[in-house]
């Protein structure tokens, strides 16, 4: 990927709207936004051909700040809105920015069915392990025994592996990285946008103000260092003994294949129906 000028992020922001942003000091969301913008800038895409869609949550504020076609929609419904956009105008590059609660809880059904259909969407799930915007409640990815405002004695529920869920549902591109690994995130976003089918990227993020404070993780620097030190690339997994892999964040492209994409099949179905005069 070619070098991106330092001020490129500035060029893609809506400076007359909604600034200063709502993210807390030390939040990873701005880092991920930078990786997304650099990926898009490096692809030389016309910003009028990009649609960024979100629901509700900390990360879901992202479309408000960028100079693309954007939709800031209902809680958990971002993928449903994105599906409608993609079906109506299949040539558009549709990116969904979502959080772990928005995507895997109320939006879970939309996630699995978009993956099942293999509709050409790029879903970037920022996973900070908690509902950050609404007060620090347990989310589907809050680790077992971790603390939240609704789990003051520790979370007794097992957490979702959203990547495995997406693969099981039929997603044809699934990847995981962390906010610390900015170049890796940038490369994955580019790959996911270019991929002709449903793509999910899970980006592990830091929420130092709520999750970090409740779980004594330290501040933003400490949480970023934990992402660095507690993650390993997929290519290294087979070279390490099981005890070195246990509990680590596995980063990399976890699954990639090609199968028929939903919009293309839908277009063929319409042609078939029209050729038959709308009746079988």
From TrEMBL:
Protein name: 2-oxoacid:ferredoxin oxidoreductase subunit beta
Organism expressing this protein natively: Candidatus Syntrophosphaera thermopropionivorans
């Amino acid at each position: 990927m070619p070098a991106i000028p330092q001020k490129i992020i500035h060029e893609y922001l809506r400076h007359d709207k909604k600034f200063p942003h709502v993210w807390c000091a030390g939040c990873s969301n701005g880092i991920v936004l930078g990786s997304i913008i650099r990926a898009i800038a490096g692809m030389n895409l016309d910003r009028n051909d990009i649609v960024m869609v979100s629901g509700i949550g900390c990360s879901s504020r992202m479309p408000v700040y960028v100079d693309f076609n954007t939709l800031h929609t209902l809680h958990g419904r971002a993928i449903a809105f994105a599906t409608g956009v993609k079906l109506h105008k299949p040539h558009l590059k549709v990116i969904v920015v979502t959080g772990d609660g928005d995507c895997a809880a109320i939006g879970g059904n939309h996630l699995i069915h978009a993956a099942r259909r293999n509709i050409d969407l790029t879903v970037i799930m920022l996973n900070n392990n908690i509902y950050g915007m609404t007060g620090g409640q347990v989310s589907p990815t809050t680790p077992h025994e971790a603390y939240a405002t609704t789990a003051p004695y520790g979370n007794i529920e097992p957490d979702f592996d959203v990547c495995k869920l997406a693969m099981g549902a039929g997603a044809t591109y699934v990847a995981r990285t962390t906010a610390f690994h900015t170049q890796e995130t940038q490369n994955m976003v580019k790959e996911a946008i270019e991929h002709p089918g449903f793509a999910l990227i899970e980006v592990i993020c830091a929420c130092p103000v709520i999750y970090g404070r409740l779980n004594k993780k330290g501040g933003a620097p400490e949480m970023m260092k934990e992402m660095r030190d507690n993650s390993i690339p997929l290519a290294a997994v087979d070279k390490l003994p099981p005890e070195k892999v246990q509990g680590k964040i596995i980063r990399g492209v976890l699954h990639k294949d090609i199968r028929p994409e939903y919009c293309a099949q839908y277009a063929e179905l319409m042609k078939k129906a029209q050729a038959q005069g709308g009746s079988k």
